[in-house]
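Many introductory courses stop at the sequence. We go one step further.
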Amino acid sequence: MIKKEEVKSYSAKDIYVLEGLEPVRKRPGMYIGSTGVDGLHHLIWEVVDNSLDEAQNGYASEIEIKLLPNSRVSVKDNGRGIPVDIHPQTKKSALETVLCTLHAGGKFGGDSYKISGGLHGVGVSVVNALSKWLRVEVERDGFLWTQEYARGKPTTKVEKKERTDRTGTTVIFDADPEIFLEMKLDFKRIIDHLREQAYLISKTKISVFDERDGNALFKYVFYFEGGVISYLKYLTEDLEQLHNNIFYVKKDFDSMSVEVSLCFVDDLQPMEVSFANNIKTGEGGMHLTGFRTALTRVLNDYAKQNGYFKNIEAFTGDDVREGLVAVVSVKLSSPQFEGQTKAKLGNPEARSSVDSVVSASLKEFLEKNQNDARAIIEKVLLAQKARVAAKAAKESVLRKGALEGAGLPGKLADCSSKKPEESELFIVEGPSAGGSAKGGRDRQTQAILPLRGKPLNVEKARMEKMLINEEVRTLVIALGTAIANEFNLAKIRYHKIIIMTDADVDGMHIRTLLLTLFFRYFQPVIDAGYLYIAQPPLYKIKKGKEIRYAYSDGERDRIVAELQKIKSQTLGVKAKIKESEVEEIMETDVAEEKIKGASIQRFKGLGEMNAEELWETTMDPKARVLNRVTIEDAVEADKLFDVLMGDEVLPRKKFIQSQASLVKEIDV
């Protein structure tokens, strides 16, 4: 029972009212998702979205983005310019009202914007709140108007400058380092995002400059006229299309614009990209659901009407999506996104509108293009047969798992703990490394699963072939999540799944094969943050009784220099050891003499390390280095896996040639 003197006051004076943009600075994650790198980039998207809204409503034709020195970013458009006259409610300039007030803008009513990417209307005001400095320049009404702010508050009045006959808005901002944990912008990430926008808003010129060192080192200009069909061609540029004509439709339905393009390629995975008001909906939503429903129904109806169903069941959604590449874009007046980061569209009417448009247009497309229709249906029939075979293989895997003791494969050395949140699974390369790992592990929390040989490349194999592969079957059973339609992340047995392979070319290949498997069939494991890559040391450096481990050549050189006390000129040893000297040291028996008593051992595999060494360097939670696997852009990751792990040689050759100059170490 709480004593009276311990009860804290709770009255009107204890109710805090955050004024202006204070709520944004108090809880920035509520408005931009995070205060990490994602949130930092989200500031740019919010400002760019305003310029894109001007473009897609027909008021702007050019947008310019610049990364400037000292972490500043500039976004400029030739739209109408933010109004600067006095706002009737706030009695302040409309410019200051928009920049300093949440839920203030031209997107909540009236005819200023028929289509807008913003849901909450907090975009530019949130950017202002989270910037240590921001300047707005508006060209309209025959003059240039400017105002500056600091952390959401104006530091100058709206100033009327020189005359101009142009219109538009420029926002220059400097994100607040007190808010963001890391102030590093990724130019490629920005380029990829803006390229998408240029595809979606036809006939709009988007220019991007990287001037962070004071010079325009990199400049990209995007301009496309084909809409989503141009974007589809970009997504499929390295893939073999199975039919000649690409399906495309653009129609208005119930005050909503629906634009869809699709084709089928010689691949096992689907690639669906969806947008709402040009904002990428990474988690889909009602518009994507409507598209999938229409696609499945129309292809089933066509197959039935043309006699393709003979003693076989109807197509499922998975059947019709194998090898599908589709872009679905809707534009509507009042989008309802789930969350400020706008990852999923929630408007129920989007489902019915897309369903209706795609159903009618796709049916007409199939009837007019019989050869294309035949190629598509044959692809779906093949997927259906593979699904039936995979179902039998999958049931066999699950039955086998259920019959093997506690459902676990014999080669798995499981941990004692039954709590997934503290349990770790190390996937190791070969029985030799498996033996060292089993000997050095913490048996309470660490499980070891050794692989025999290289796993199957699932990018080139259907599920039924994948599930008869012993290594894949073993992993599926060990994880406990099942696979495909039966996959259930809640049943996963480990919250850390660690790929631990040799630090050589073969080890990297095995790691890539495992990453392909997880990306294609266990992506929720990656999304949950459960997949990691271990980083074993490359070198063991010993002098006397002191032993050090190096994880790179640079670290090796620093350790050797420290052990030899290079500062003393009498030793006559250079601070950096040449590669030829290191090779000679490793291959002779006089290593200590050559470097004054320090020897270097290059680990060519985990099996060369004893249990104690493997624990100290790679498995001990207090000392190890783990890299978490993440997916920033699933579409780009999908394309890259197709290129690197697929059947087509030419795209892979082109990729290797284009990236060869960036490679520093071949065998690390």
